[in-house]
Amino acid sequence: MRAVSVSDYREIARRKLPKIFFEYIDGGSYAEATLGRNVADIEAIALRQLVMRDMSVLDMSTTSLGQSFSMPLGISPVGMSGMYGRRGEVQGARAAAKAGIPFSLSTVGVCPVEEVAAAGVPPWFQLYILKDRGYTRALIERAKAAGSPVLFLTVDLPMPGARYRDVRSGFTGATGLGAAIERAWDGISHPAWMWDVWLHGRPHTMGSIAGAIEGRGSVSDVLTWIAKNFDRSVTWADVDWVRQVWDGPIVIKGVLDPEDARQAVKAGAQGVVVSNHGGRQLDGVRSSISALPGIADAVGGDLEVYMDGGVRSGLDVLKAVALGAKACFIGRPWAYALAAGGEAAVARMLETFRAELAVAMTLTGCSTIAQAGRSLLDTDA
């Protein structure tokens, strides 16, 4: 199968990955209503086609928080990416660097921040605040020492959402010999993945936090550890605590309401990511794209507003920028591409996004991304 779109990469990933890992990345929480809305609500937005403009020169570059983006796109942090391709976070970071966009490393990435930074451009580092503040401080200091330029403080996971697909697949909740045999067969029956990831992608520990996880520190221990160790007592005052350790830009990831966005401004954050965690946390909330305009209107002049959730093409990127996003971040798309074909597939997918964005800009009469605004949208469609 020749992959062209994100849906193509998804199908290849479905075939190549063990079921437990495909369902983990593909699924959402509960009935997956919000997961569906993220995509459907972007698809429902119509662009306004304008022709006979001089579109011989396009500039889709932008600058944000001191970073240059070749296009308004970045790679979101995806937990356990190293289980989708051999040392997957490193491969993703290399593809992002070649594309001239930022790569964000998850707290629960398989590869530690030092390994990813050594592979190319230091990643933006995504942080969960742990109950053990000493270990949290050490994580921040490691990211700083590795040269990470931006801290993504993710705030919408005080406890994991109920992800029914993970229970059905046996990724969570299944114990005993029968469950172990089922998981082993799941891996063995996907030989390409076994060769690439299981045999040659070790170690399979959560690199940056391996020392904190009870048990062996393997992926099978991670979700139990998250439920026990992510701090539910975090408040806006904790941004001040983070600032004592981190002197670079802080972006609050997981904001859906203008009130919280205004709190982020008061807390001294430099950016927010409008996000519902890809529909993986509180099901039934609104889509990211529907929340974006209100948040951009409320705080867009005070900090950078980004968005993730449901972005599947360069056309989607332009829609989000038109509604007030400085840039979009993508999670599932790059994880699918990583599973489908590693760094090369991620790079191809990013170039497809670039080509799609070029078409969208050309046929809406938008020669520079800085010009993108709500006038690009067809509100009568």
Describe what this molecule looks like in 3D.
The mean pLDDT is 94. Helix content is 44%, strand content 10%. It is α/β, with parallel strands linked by helices and 381 residues long. Strands 3-10-9-8-7-6-5-4 form an eight-stranded parallel sheet. A two-stranded antiparallel ribbon has the order 1-2. α12 (258-266) links the parallel β7 and β8 (271-274). It has one domain (6-370): TIM Barrel, CATH 3.20.20.
CATH class: Alpha Beta
Number of domains: 1
Beta-strand percent range: 5-15%
* Overall pLDDT confidence: 94
Following the backbone from N to C, one meets helices and strands in this order, namely HHHEEEHEHEHEHHHHHEHEHEHEH
What is the name of the CATH architecture? Answer: Alpha-Beta Barrel
| Backbone CA Rg | 20 Å
How can the largest sheet be summarized?
8 strands, parallel
How many distinct helices?
Answer: 15
Determine the structural class based on helices, strands and strand pairing.
alpha/beta
Q: Strand sequence of the main sheet, in spatial order? A: 3-10-9-8-7-6-5-4
CATH topology: TIM Barrel
Distance between the termini: 35 Å
The residue fraction in helices comes out at: 40-55%
Unreliable runs: none
The count of DSSP E runs of length 2 or more, i.e. the number of strands, is 10
Oligomer designation: single chain
CATH superfamily: Aldolase class I
Shape: globular
